[in-house]
Amino acid sequence: MVTEAEQADGSAEDWADVSPEAARRLVRAAVEAFAERGYHATTTRDIAGRAGMSPAALYIHYRTKEELLFRISGIGHEKALRIMEEAAGADGSPAERLAAAVRAFACWHARHHTTARVIQYELQALSEEHYAHVAGLRRRTDRSLRGILQDGADAGEFTVGDVPGTTLAVLSLCVDVARWFSAEGARTPEEVGELYAGLVLRMVGARR
C-alpha cells in the first residue's frame, strides 16, 4: 500500500522495479527510517516493524542492513544519472541544456527529498565495494554536467574560469535541496527547479 507520505514525496514510483512486493515494502520502510533516524541509529527491527514484517523476514530479501542501503543508493543514483545524461545529450544550446539539467536535477531532489537525503547523506555507511560502485555513478553524473559547462565555455556562452569547480558547486546546490525541501513549503518541486535553473545560468554568465 502506498502511504500519503510516499505520494507527497514521490517515493513510491522510485521503487516500482523492486520485487517482490515484500522487498519493495522493506525498501520503502528503510528509506523512511534512514531519513528519520539516520543509518547507524536504525536497526533491522525498526525497518521490519515499519514494513509490517518480522526481523527474520528482512533477511530473506537482504542479507544485511548495509545491503539494503546499497540497493536504495544504487537505484537513486541511477535515476539521478539518467536525468543528467538525458539533459546533456538533448538538442539545444549549452545554456538550454544546462537549464534543463539543473531544472530536472533540482526538481528530482525536491520531489523525492526523503529518498535523496538517504542516498546523498548516508554514503559513508556503504561497504568499500558498494561505495566504489555508487561513486562511479556519481562521477558519470559529474562528467555529464561538466561536459555541458565545457561546451558553453568553449562556445563563449558561459564565463567559467574553473569548470570542475563550477560543476561541483552546481551539483552541490541541487543536492542540498533534499536537505531543506518540505512538501508543505511555499514552493513546488517544479518551482524549485525553475528557480535553480535561473540561478545557475546567472552563475555561469550565460549569454542567451
Automatic annotation (TrEMBL):
PROSITE patterns xrefs: HTH_TETR_2 (PS50977)
InterPro entries from the UniProt entry: Homeodomain-like_sf, HTH-type_TetR-like_transc_reg, HTH_TetR, KstR2_TetR_C, Tet_transcr_reg_TetR-rel_C_sf
Entry keyword annotation includes DNA-binding: yes
DNA-binding interval(s): 43-62
Keyword list, A-Z: DNA-binding
Chain ranges of the HTH tetR-type domain: 20-80
PANTHER family: HTH-TYPE TRANSCRIPTIONAL REGULATOR RUTR, HTH-TYPE TRANSCRIPTIONAL REPRESSOR BDCR
Name under which the protein is recorded: TetR/AcrR family transcriptional regulator
Protein source organism: Streptomyces chrestomyceticus
